[in-house]
Task: inverse folding
């Protein structure tokens, strides 16, 4: 297992289009997190899952955003009717292996550009 | 709610010189503290964490940090930097819940190491 993977790595879309990102966590990690990072800022929490249950959502996550984690494995983040303000790096992280319950392991991110 | 302040957006330093990256936090509850590093086009990698116990924490790549509860600080230090340390460094906090929980990040400090 080589770590958290995210696809695609880059996505360019026109305003108003829908986009979907995928995150594959490290196997056996039961928690999965989504963060958004805009230029010059630190990552901001969006939402997280414990297995397939979505336990918390940030107020940053408007109703145009939806995240799922069917079967508690990979997760998808969908943005409907994209806006230019959605342009950012979307980061996924997983955590809670038996040997280190505190560290979140981050993927390389998906960079979204809305034109 | 928690918040993190990284006062220095950029820190230039010569190779082999010591460096300190400052981090202050605010929280009404007990927290865990973290430093992450982000290299260009990569995800975040954990440098070190403070959970409890000794206030001096040692991490990877020769970095260390000291937790100061009275000053609500968690400054990162390295006695001698290398060119390869050039990266963005993020301080983060999470609630002390006994396991991993959402992270609140600072805005980051860009460490630029030159010859």
Result:
């Amino acid at each position: 297992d080589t770590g958290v993977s995210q696809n695609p790595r880059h996505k360019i879309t026109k305003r108003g289009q829908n986009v979907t990102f995928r995150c594959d966590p490290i196997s056996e990690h039961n928690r999965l997190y989504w963060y958004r990072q805009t230029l010059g800022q630190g990552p901001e929490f969006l939402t997280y899952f414990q297995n397939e249950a979505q336990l918390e959502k940030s107020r940053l996550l408007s109703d145009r955003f939806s995240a799922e984690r069917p079967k508690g494995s990979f997760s998808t983040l969908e943005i409907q009717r994209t806006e230019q303000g959605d342009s950012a790096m979307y980061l996924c992280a997983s955590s809670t292996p038996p040997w280190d319950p505190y560290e979140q392991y981050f993927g390389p991110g998906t960079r979204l550009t809305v034109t | 709610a928690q918040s993190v302040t990284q006062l220095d957006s950029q820190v230039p330093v010569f190779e082999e010189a010591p460096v300190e990256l400052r981090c202050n936090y605010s929280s009404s509850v007990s927290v865990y503290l973290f430093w992450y590093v982000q290299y260009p086009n990569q995800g975040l990698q954990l440098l070190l964490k403070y959970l409890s116990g000794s206030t001096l924490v040692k991490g990877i790549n020769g970095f260390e940090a000291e937790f100061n509860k009275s000053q609500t600080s968690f400054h990162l230090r390295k006695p001698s930097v290398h060119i390869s340390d050039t990266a963005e460094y993020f301080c983060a906090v999470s609630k002390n819940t006994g396991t991993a929980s959402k992270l609140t990040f600072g805005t980051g400090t860009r460490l630029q190491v030159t010859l």
Observations:
- The radius of gyration of chain B is 14 Å.
